[in-house]
């Protein structure tokens, strides 16, 4: 069983420019550690034309194994060695990204997550140490062993006075103190400002400023989770950040990026993207630094600016994440669902994979079953045919990471089936993508997908050198599974994020007939197709569509 690694780095911010910042945590034990999360009623912001960007220190690196699913059939002699390269595959269309944290970083847990349908493992570089990140990556690759303690959270009680401080406390934090890792905090904030934790988890009023310490009174009790995002509001408006023009990548981010390149991750996810520029910079950096690897760059959409520049950002990126956590702190909460749908549709049109992230099954951090509302939310993302769903705290530090993953799996399978069986949907029509070198392939894929649907084909097979032809097929969201063959391991791993693609690494020879025969016997050996099935075959070198009756 091969575990290939995929990864993304979600990068953040630079100091100074920012309003919203991650809060660093006091050593454990000193802070009141709650047994239960406080239930909060989140009220959305009185609509303010919040034009400012919130930046965070979050860096998220993401890593991934292929789903390692139980074998369905004995491999035939000629394909005996093949499962070692390709792992074992299921045919679920919606891909599942899991944030790895203390709850899931162990060998057994990772293995269980992979078996449970995880398509991509994500590591957030703002949590944990470099060695931990490396060890998770290694474990994802080779599955080995180590555990990390659970994170803690703080409860704020109504009217409590807290000190928010940028001082670096060497060992123990004084009582009722929160460390803020944004140096400009004490300067930027004003007495009377409202400080909002994570879009409404808790609220404070700024009472007094004493040097680097800011005294605040809790006005809306709630919870402070590690790495929480702070925004501050003045007269009902999000405070404009000081310098919106600084690059989105800090020097720590660049070090994390070097680390990701050295470790051979498959994706970087960049936090708080404002425009296409940062994506373009990162892409040229990757191209210059790693001649053979081709790490995909995912833009996290979580700021007001990123919504304004959405189309250019999507165009510049290899994929997009709807980062609903921070997004919900930047725009009124009731706008998040329609913005999500808009981003998902745009990505589909522009032919980029899209991940729907944050709070999908938030209550499962604590409870073994999801709320009905969460099930409805996940179902909606699957119905929108987003490429992937992502777990955050649920898999990183929740009490039921495996159950959360299996809930995602069963909702996806159910909704995908509903979609295929019903006439519930209108097929989306796309404008042409209009990249002229690809227009023939684009038409071929549209035609092949349509043909497969009309014929009720059992599978689409695609030979793809760069993955492009396969993602064009995925974009059509055909009814049958898409088996994608490529000679490149890294192309194979990146295809793992695309809706419906079941990627395989296969050495392709010049002889088309023999390539096709070996793919068919590989799929038959795995029980993914059988004699009598109809398969539609396309290839980026041949530019023809063939319909084959499986012998
Ligand atoms: N490596 C880790 N070590 C400890 N805790 C972690 C780790 N990774 C994630 N977590 C926990 O899981 C939670 C969710 O992680 P995640 O990275 O999705 O969210 P985040 O910190 O809000 O950042 P972002 O907005 O970039 O997603 C974190 O707040 C943290 O408590
Ligand atoms: C995933 C992420 O960064 C967010 O939801 O804010
Ligand atoms: K999050
Ligand atoms: Mg975020």
From TrEMBL:
Which co-factor is required?
K(+); Mg(2+)
The pathway it acts in is: Carbohydrate degradation; glycolysis; pyruvate from D-glyceraldehyde 3-phosphate: step 5/5
Gene Ontology molecular function, alphabetical: ATP binding; kinase activity; magnesium ion binding; potassium ion binding; pyruvate kinase activity
Entry's EC annotation = 2.7.1.40
Q: Does the keyword 4Fe-4S apply?
A: no
Q: Which UniProt keywords apply?
A: ATP-binding, Glycolysis, Kinase, Magnesium, Metal-binding, Nucleotide-binding, Pyruvate, Transferase
Give all residue intervals belonging to the Pyruvate kinase C-terminal domain: 442-541
Catalytic reaction(s) noted = pyruvate + ATP = phosphoenolpyruvate + ADP + H(+)
Q: Which cellular components does GO assign to this protein?
A: chloroplast stroma
Concerning InterPro entries, the annotation shows:
Pyr_Knase, Pyrv/PenolPyrv_kinase-like_dom, Pyrv_kinase-like_dom_sf, Pyrv_Knase-like_insert_dom_sf, Pyrv_Knase_AS, Pyrv_Knase_brl, Pyrv_Knase_C, Pyrv_Knase_C_sf
**The Pyruvate kinase barrel domain, residue ranges:** 92-147, 174-404
Tell me where on the tree of life, at the top rank, the source sits.
Eukaryota
Q: What class of enzyme is it?
A: transferase
What NCBIfam families does this protein map onto? pyruv_kin
PANTHER family per record:
PYRUVATE KINASE
Which family, according to UniProt?
A: Belongs to the pyruvate kinase family.
The name this protein goes by in its record: Pyruvate kinase
